[in-house]
């Protein structure tokens, strides 16, 4: 395998050095591709064709594909462009263009514009690759890894994955060339899913299959977050991490899309939030001491049936999406008319007074209601829209799991359920049937695999039943 790869390296060296003019006539960008001929080290020059070590200039554009994986373990490296998993026109050789970069530490900086395709994870034009195992790109961040980039596209025309580990940081920042030395400045955009089946390509780019996924366990910051642009599929998953957007959350955009309803239905813009330990802020003013005369859009734009909000609760509830309240600049609203809501509330130990906030928008700037609500577990709730205060929240939780003696609907049968029966608030108030149901289910959790509760002794239940039936008989005689 390595011999063949080295031969190809020699034969195609000149065909791989495609150039485009940047800055001046004397400055040319070289497309440099990872070949892994020495090992997997990203920073080692001999692992690249041609042998230009990343960080040696701010001109070259680096690519990892051909089914190869590279590793980045430390230090700070700055490059003009990086494409992980690319079958772009300048590199069409072979039928395998999957690529992976795994970071375990260090800082990687990409100064080129992500919007112009200079930083992409999963980027395909042609030829068309139908085998999922042979296409797309992955960037996996573990340990104390940091990426600072001038914008990013994840899943352009193909699949792409950015996984941000618990201690890892990703920041989208503009590259400011107006100062000397050049440096990163304000925040920049990210696009998740770009160019899909619904895009009206006029026959120029068949096989579009943009599918982007960003999985956040650590920290992520950007300006605007665009989903499913040009008819693709994009998803953000938040599991205990932090997402801060200085701009908006845009889930209803479909530039140049066809009117075919079948193709349009294949779009997906999804935000999935797991647990209650994360943070999700939209529209955060990055510098409260300076008033921006033209502040950016700071709204949630999700008025589309292909926009999906999914919340999976833990014992503490859920992480709400918060429209940050800025002191001296406008704060954003939420347009959700017709969007979909998915809820899995089974792990939340609710009470009759429980309330969970899903979206916390600016007062009077909540627009519309969800077009559909799907409960994925055995717990349901009422979805409420407080248009005055800008909130979407849940209350009136109910268990649909089927424990007949669970009169307080908290997922188990215990002494509190007996009190509910005794006070006449069970399904059939004060009936022997409800009492028997409580006896049969006493000590049983809704999901026996989630809790281990010792069963009561037969003597204990007999004692309770004897006392209760005596009380019940005296009550009937009155």
UniProtKB/TrEMBL annotation:
It comes from the Bacteria. It comes from Bythopirellula polymerisocia. Residues 1-29 form the signal peptide. This is Ice-binding protein C-terminal domain-containing protein. Pfam families: PEP-CTERM. Residues 452-476 form the Ice-binding protein C-terminal domain. The keyword Signal applies. InterPro entries: EF_Hand_1_Ca_BS, Ice-binding_C. Coiled coil: none annotated. PROSITE patterns: EF_HAND_1. Keywords: Signal. The keyword Signal applies.
């Amino acid at each position: 395998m390595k011999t063949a790869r080295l031969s190809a390296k020699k034969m195609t060296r000149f065909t791989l050095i495609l150039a485009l003019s940047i800055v001046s006539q004397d400055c040319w960008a070289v497309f440099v591709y990872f070949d892994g001929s020495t090992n997997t080290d990203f920073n080692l020059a001999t692992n690249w064709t041609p042998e230009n070590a990343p960080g040696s200039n701010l001109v070259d554009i680096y690519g990892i594909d051909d089914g190869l994986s590279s590793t980045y373990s430390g230090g700070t490296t700055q490059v003009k462009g990086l494409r992980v998993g690319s079958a772009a026109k300048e590199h069409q050789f072979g039928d395998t263009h999957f690529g992976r970069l795994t970071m375990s530490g260090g800082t990687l900086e990409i100064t080129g514009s992500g919007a112009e395709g200079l930083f992409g994870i999963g980027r395909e034009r042609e030829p068309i690759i139908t085998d999922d195992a042979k296409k797309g790109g992955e960037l996996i961040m573990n340990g104390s890894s940091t990426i600072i980039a001038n914008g990013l596209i994840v899943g352009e025309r193909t699949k792409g994955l950015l996984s941000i580990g618990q201690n890892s940081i990703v920041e989208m920042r503009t590259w400011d060339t107006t100062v000397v030395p050049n440096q990163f400045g304000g925040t920049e955009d990210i696009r998740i899913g770009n160019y899909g089946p619904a895009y009206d390509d006029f026959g120029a780019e068949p096989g579009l299959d943009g599918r982007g996924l960003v999985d956040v366990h650590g920290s992520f910051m950007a300006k605007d977050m665009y989903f499913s642009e040009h008819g693709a599929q994009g998803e953000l998953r938040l599991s205990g991490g932090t997402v801060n957007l200085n701009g908006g959350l845009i889930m209803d955009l479909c530039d140049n899309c066809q009117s075919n309803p079948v193709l349009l239905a294949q779009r997906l813009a999804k935000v999935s939030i797991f647990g209650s330990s994360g943070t999700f802020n939209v529209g955060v003013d990055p510098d409260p001491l300076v008033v921006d005369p033209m502040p950016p859009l700071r709204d949630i734009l999700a008025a589309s049936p292909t926009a999906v909000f999914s919340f999976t609760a833990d014992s503490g509830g859920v992480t709400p999406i918060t429209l940050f309240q800025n002191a001296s600049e406008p704060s954003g609203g939420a347009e959700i008319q017709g969007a979909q809501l998915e809820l899995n509330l089974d792990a939340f130990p609710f009470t009759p007074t429980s309330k969970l906030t899903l979206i916390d928008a600016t007062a009077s700037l909540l627009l519309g209601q969800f077009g559909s609500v799907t409960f994925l577990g055995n717990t349901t709730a009422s979805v409420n829209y407080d248009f005055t205060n800008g909130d979407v929240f849940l209350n009136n939780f109910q268990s649909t799991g089927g424990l007949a003696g669970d009169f307080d609907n908290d997922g188990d049968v215990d002494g509190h359920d007996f009190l509910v029966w005794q006070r006449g608030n069970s399904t059939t108030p004060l009936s022997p049937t409800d009492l028997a149901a409580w006896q049969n289910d006493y000590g049983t959790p809704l999901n026996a695999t989630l809790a281990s509760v010792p069963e009561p002794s037969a003597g204990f239940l007999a004692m309770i039943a004897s006392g209760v039936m005596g009380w019940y008989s005296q009550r009937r005689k009155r």
